[in-house]
Amino acid sequence: MDALIWHAPDADHPARRAARASMTAVGSGRRDEWLDLFAPDALVEDPVGPSFLDPSGAGHRGRDGIGAFWDSFIATISGFRFEINDSFANGPCCANVATITTTMGDGSTMTIDCILIYTVDDAGLITSLRAHWEPDRAMATLKKS
Length: 145
Prior knowledge:
- The chain is built from 4 helices and 7 strands, in the order E-H-H-E-E-H-E-E-E-E-H.
- By secondary structure, it is of the alpha/beta class.
C-alpha cells in the first residue's frame, strides 16, 4: 500500500515539496530523513493545542524535541497512509486537507481527518508543522483487528 496518495493540486511549491517529503519519510519510517527536513529551531504542533500527545500544548521545538516526538509517538505506529484530498500553497506555506490512516502493531486502525500546514524558510526547510485534528474524533474511528 502506498504511504502517500495525492488527489490534490500539485503545482511545484517549496512548502508543498517539503510536505510531500515529510509524509513520505513518516510513511516509510525514516526518522533521520524526516528530521533533516526541519530547520534547527522548527516547531511541530501535532495536534495544535493541548492533547494527550502534548499536555501543555506548547508543541515540540528543535530537532531534539521533534526527534523525541517521533520516538514517543510516530515510532509506536506500524503504518501510516496519507491521503491528500486538497492542497493550498501560497507564501511560505502549504495547507493540505488530509486523511491519515494509522495501523498499530496489533493491526488495529485509526483514521485522522486533518489539515496539515507546513511553513518553510528560504532554504526550503520546515520551520513549522501544524496539524489541526481532534483526538476524540480520531479515537472514535479506532477499529480493532
